Amino acid sequence: MKFIFKWLFRLFIAAVVLVVVTIVVLLLSYNSILRVAIERSIRAQTGMDAEIGSFHFALTSPTIRIQNFKLYNPPEFGGTPFLDIPEVYVEYDRAALARKEIHITLMRFNLGELDIVKSQAGQTNIFALGLKLPAKNSGGSSNAVVDLKKQTGYDFKGIDTLNISIGKFKYIDLQDPQKSREQTIGLENVVIPKVKSSADLASLSPLIYLHSDGFFNSLFDQKKSDLDVLKQLGL
Predict the structure, then answer these.
(1) Which residues contact 98 (CB under 8 A, 6 or more apart)?
(2) Number of C-alpha atoms within 13 angstroms, CB side, residue 129?
(3) Which of 28, 90, 180, 222 is the most buried (most CB within 10 A)?
(4) What is the pLDDT of residue 126?
(5) Angle between helices 35-46 and 2-29 in degrees, nearest 10
(6) Alpha-carbon distance values, 90 to 107, 133, 159, 187, 195 (Å)
(7) With the C-alpha atoms ordered 189, 193, 197, 198, is the resulting torsion angle positive or negative?
(8) Are strands 63-72 and 50-57 parallel, antiparallel or unpaired?
């Protein structure tokens, strides 16, 4: 279903925003904030437990590496990882920071796994968790990647080169475990130049769908009308 896929695509954009905001926190603190403080900050913003395996903020070169970042589902959704991001690597423009701008020259983003969970109560985590998805602009598109100033005080000037890898999606049905399944997407090193808004990520949509083997089509009640789905997805 194209509406479900569009929502998941917006969720992926929200994950990028979360990582960029974390990067800004690191930059502004000059590495003085401990990893546990960042994890608590993410929990305060999302209501979900976070775990960062390691991060390295280089003092001699404008690079940041975050490894083994996990965002966990709450107990009612099994406490499984919601997002598993093995690595985010960033090279940024140091001079732009003095102008209160975030200019990323290279970003490698490896989304290892996304878990969609249906609870015992019949709720689905991507609809029930209340994640703050990006608002649409007047043209009807989402601009989460660029709307960072309210959160950080810094203008986002774009990503010169974005390198994306996507591992797999899981569907976990706690009501009927036999319906649980997973789909390997297997996209590696997809390069997207000059990313300034979510519209610049549109080329990912057909790639993910072609590799999904119908994974999204049967996740939800097919008896619902398109209008019902639109209302549920907030589109």
Answers:
(1) none
(2) 28
(3) 90
(4) 76
(5) 140
(6) 5, 23, 10, 19, 14
(7) negative
(8) antiparallel
Count the Cβ atoms, other than its own, within 10 Å of residue 178. Answer: 6
pLDDT along the chain (235 residues), means of 10: 53 59 59 58 72 77 87 89 90 86 90 91 77 47 54 80 94 92 94 85 82 74 45 42
Whole-number pLDDT of residue 141: 45
In DSSP notation, 170-196 reads EEEESS-GGG-EEEEEEEEEEEEEEE-
pLDDT given at position 225: 45
- Per DSSP, the three-state class of 98 is helix
Where would I find the H helices in the chain? 2-29, 35-46, 94-98, 125-128, 149-152, 204-212, 226-233
* Token duo for residue 133: 């998805």
pTM of the model: 0.76
Alpha-helical (H) ranges within 48-138 are 94-98, 125-128
Largest CA distance in the chain: 58
Residue 126 Rama label (left phi>0; alpha psi -120 to 50; beta): alpha
Q: Are 95 and 102 in contact (CB under 8 A)?
A: no
Please choose, from the candidates 45, 113, 47, the residue with its C-alpha nearest in 3D space to the C-alpha of residue 85.
113
Strands 101-118, 63-72: pairing is unpaired
Report whether 233 contacts 2 (CB < 8 A). Answer: no
The closest of 125, 141, 26 to 83, measured between CA atoms, is 125
Tokens encoding 9: 């695509």
pLDDT number for residue 108: 93
